[in-house]
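BUG: 3D viewer hangs when loading the predicted structure for this chain

Environment: internal workstation, default settings.
Expected: structure renders.
Actual: progress bar stalls at 90%.

Input used:
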Amino acid sequence: MSDLDRAIAIDIALEPDAGMTAHAIAVNARLRSQFPSGFELGETHKPHITVLQRFVDGNALDQVTTAARSVIADEHIPSWKLTAVDHNYIAIPPVGVTTIAIAPTDELHRLQQRLIDALAPYTVHSGTTAAFVSSVEGTDIQDKLISYVTDFVSRSSGDHFHPHVTTGVATVEYLDQMVQERFEPFVFTIVGATLYQLGTYGTAQKRLGTLT
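Structure tokens produced before the viewer hung:
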């Protein structure tokens, strides 16, 4: 079996407190009223902050979990104070995946780099649609999603890391209007961290293990 065949698309995610969770779910309900085929936040798709996405060897998930858990245990993440600053979206025309942007911090940058280093021995270069959670044989996995995970470290780490909570999907036209609305920044905390397998639109769909 090749590396591609063994690959699992993972997401190491921070779990926000009840205030951020409620805010994200409210935005998600608004978006689904405009775009009903978008995903629903809740038990299946919990609001979260992605720190790292990677393709890893599916035979090494225990080692991945242990390595990530060791890093996170050193960081004392419940003491962090993070700030939500704006609405944004990632375009996948004709739709966009919406986010609540979070101000980056030294702690977030440090955590991300430590996780990249810790998971390097178990990382594979890329994967296929089989690396993702899908109930329709991968037909709901976007081509851009595979390249996004493949290139996550080069495109979304260090100075390119833009932490956020994903809130849903809507048309680009609707989101262009939404991001112009006034956003009241707010402070929130982190209550845990989880290892997920990714699904459609890059959602953290299947819980693989608790990291705190």
